[in-house]
Amino acid sequence: MEKFEREIRESKFAELMNKHFTASSIPKGIHCLSLRLTDEYSSNAHARRQLPAPELLPLLSDNSYHHFILSTDNILAASVVVTSTVASSLRPEKIVFHVITDKKTYAGMHSWFALNPVSPAIIEVKGVHQFEWLTRENVPVLEAVESHNSIRNYYHDLSDTTPRMFASKLQARSPKYISLLNHLRIYLPELFPNLDKVVFLDDDVVIQRDLSPLWDIDLKGKVNDNLDSEECAWAYGMNVFDLHAWRKTSIRETYHSWQNLKSNLTMWKLGTLPPALIAFKGHVHAIDPEWHMLGLGYQNKTDIESVKRAAVIHYNGQSKPWLPIGFEHLRPFWTKYVNYSNDFVRNCHIMET
Predict the structure, then answer these.
(1) CB of 223 within 8 A of CB of 241?
(2) Which CDD domains has this protein been placed in (predicted)?
(3) In angstroms, how far is CA 61 from the centroid of its own chain?
(4) Which of 102, 117, 119, 168 has its CA 20 to 30 A from that of 266?
(5) Angstrom distance (rounded) from CA 281 to CA 239
(6) How many CB atoms are located within 10 Å of the residue 137 CB?
(7) What is the rounded CA–CA span in Å between residue 150 and residue 242?
């Protein structure tokens, strides 16, 4: 009996490990897309054209426009977020998208939006290496999390653990948690010093309704919505940030203090969530939950009618719609915004399923 239970436990661990590797991997087609677009950036002047056009640059800091910020290294996912937002907008001419990516993806991301404009919306693509403010001195979190051995030990220590705890450790080991792109939301007031109010979107969301009313919501002097520190939860997928109010707080300092309070970085083992919950406590104003539907990346039995009604649907969880482990009945809400007739998409054999 003991041997049988051990075999079941090991089988469960193996299943969790396989799912973790699948969720953390980059599909061949998406990797191909990034490589081909990066090559296009080198060989095609049109792919390198300035984004936005010089005459539109003043609009990047014009607070009469609706500013969206998206931080990602997934070009296909970024295209879906931007396309769905613009398609669902009643006033797309008022949209300004600030797409932030890492250095290795910058050329490919720039190529995509240079060659596939979403007029009349305005798109800016910027690499983290192009922000002068992002220095090790200003952003100590990244270096600490990447280099701290105790976190690596935490990930690898599987002795006397349960499948549930093992799954939690695997999730925390995801490259996303130690990526600078994952921490950028904490530095929005510094990265966009001239903006007062923005909507920050994750790359695993789809926009299904006009989001312009979000700019009319009175946050009552608070900084953020969609975070509940009492429930230990933050709906990362779609957040409204009042950057003007944020600059009057010590949120960033509080966030960084938890790096130093615990020498073993216990608070950082699950990415940005635990310290963010502490840093934003008291600075949050809740909005109607119908704006943002969660769970499409882990709840297989999600109600389809509820999905259709939601303004923003969020594929949070391992089963992303661009992965083979994505839920088939929920994938069409995402794939409807993929341009499968695009030459780069076709040549990389990213096929509609």
Answers:
(1) yes
(2) GT8_like_1 (cd06429)
(3) 22
(4) 102
(5) 15
(6) 7
(7) 35
